[in-house]
Design goal:
The complex is a heterodimer.
Chain A (H helix, E strand, L loop, with lengths): L5 H13 L2 H13 L3 H25 L5 H8 L1 H34 L5 H17 L2 H25 L18 H14 L5 H4 L7 H26 L10 H6 L12 H30 L9 H14 L4 H29 L6 H5 L1
Chain B lengths: L1 H23 L2 H23 L6 H8 L8
Helix pairs in contact in B: 1-2
The chains are: A mainly alpha, B mainly alpha.
């Protein structure tokens, strides 16, 4: 039995909320919410606390099982259908994140390298990480995510001289509607924390640890986004595809270290690869739970390759990934809100015959 | 043809690495393993050889554009 501590679980929650959100979502949230961007994440987090609580309650009812297990054992046919739906959901997130990583590397770091080569290298890394099991993925996450957290906390201090309060004023000028629109973009990314109960059994996954991970992730995204708007204002981020990268490019510590963006990208990229490997692991783990005779570990290679192919099939180019965020929430909410609600209602332990007789 | 060859070359590189563990795995594992590879290969060839390949995300975006706040 692989063991994961509460601290590791919180860090995984933080990874799921933060790492993919900071790629392009801040640009879209700023475009609709303008200076009220900060409210968008808070609304998203508040909205996602309820399904997280519901999922933790289901896990508490079956302490020795994860959600795939619970669904399949409680309702063999419907449970398998729901599990297959979640597997396709995680596979989609895997393909989207893989495409985001590859496009970012192609645009920012290696413009001459063919995109398929970069994608193949990242996919091979993902496969080897996921094959190691959840304990290995969690340990890798404990290695990279704390450094990324420190960097996110340091950002406002490093850029202190560039910060201008006039960029975030006047607040709530157009009421709550722009913030609600921004929340539409934030909620699906924050909601990806629903992956946790699918890979961890009830004994490991608790509401408090999940919530602390989610809140830490939201806090870090807030800090990064505040620094972004205070430094660059509202107009520059909405015209860029990778606003956070534009922000870290502003950092010039000394005359000798004018490319401080490279070490920061060097920390974010492995953390993002680890995040994506959680999705690959969730896919393979789900297949193993639905069909116990199939080895999840062996399937990490073909499903990694399927994710690689899907990242090119599903998204024609970088803009495709970016624009899809607008409608993605409508689909994601089915998996992050509606199905958890249905699972909360229907997934209860069977009553024993003696209990019924009493 | 070029896409097909590229796809097969990736398969030829990956399968020998896992050959031994695959032989020890169950028949169902091997079936799903090669099945998912076959689907991936078919998608890869389709995406690479058709410049106007059908992409579900574009279709979904068109279908749900009313809910997009930026539209």
């Amino acid at each position: 039995m692989e063991k994961i501590s509460s601290r590791q679980l919180s860090l995984i929650g933080c990874t799921l909320v933060m790492d993919a959100t900071i790629i392009s979502v801040p640009a879209q949230i700023t475009a609709v919410a303008k200076v009220d961007f900060w409210l968008a994440y808070l609304l998203g987090a508040a909205f996602m606390t309820v399904p997280l609580w519901m999922l933790s309650k289901i896990s508490a009812r079956f302490p020795d099982k994860d959600l795939y297990d619970i669904a399949v054992q409680r309702y063999p046919v419907a449970g398998r259908i729901v599990s297959l739906l979640y597997i396709s959901f995680f596979l989609f997130i895997l393909a989207r994140d893989l495409r985001s990583i590859v496009d970012f590397v192609n645009v920012a770091l290696l413009p001459m390298t063919p995109i398929s080569v970069t994608a193949a290298l990242v996919t091979i890394t993902l496969i080897f990480i996921a094959r190691g099991g959840i304990e290995m993925v969690a340990r890798l996450n404990s290695l990279w995510q704390p450094i990324l957290i420190i960097v996110a906390f340091m950002l406002p201090f490093i850029l202190f001289r560039e910060l201008q309060v006039r960029h975030v004023l006047p607040s709530l000028e157009y009421g709550a509607i722009p913030a609600l629109k921004g929340g539409w973009y934030a909620v699906s990314y924050i909601g990806e924390i629903v992956l946790l109960p699918f890979i961890f059994e009830g004994r490991t996954f608790h509401f408090r640890t999940g919530l602390s991970g989610m809140l830490l992730g939201v806090l870090l995204v807030e800090i990064s986004h505040w620094t972004l708007v205070l430094t660059l204002g509202v107009l520059i981020p909405i015209r860029t595809l990778y606003p956070m990268y534009e922000l870290v490019r502003q950092i010039r510590l000394t005359d000798f270290l004018d490319r401080f963006d490279l070490p920061i990208v060097g920390i974010w990229l492995p953390a993002m690869i680890v995040r994506t490997s959680f999705c690959l692991f969730a896919v393979c783990h789900g297949i193993n739970r639905i069909f116990p005779s199939i080895s999840g570990k062996e399937l990490s290679t073909p499903f990694g390759v399927l994710g690689f192919v899907c990242c090119f099939w599903l998204f024609r180019n970088t803009m495709n990934v970016f624009l899809f965020n607008g409608v993605w929430t409508a689909i994601a909410l089915v998996f992050e809100w509606l199905i958890p609600l249905a699972l909360f209602v229907f997934l209860r332990p069977k009553r024993s015959t003696s209990a019924i007789a009493q | 043809m070029k896409q097909l060859l590229l796809g097969f070359s990736i398969l030829l590189m990956l399968v020998p690495v896992q050959w031994r563990s695959l032989q020890r795995a169950s028949r169902a594992t091997r079936f799903v393993y090669y099945g998912v590879f076959a689907v991936s290969l078919a998608l890869w060839v389709y995406t690479g050889s058709h410049p106007t390949a059908v992409r579900p995300t574009e279709w979904i975006r068109h279908l749900l554009r009313a809910v997009d706040p930026l539209q």
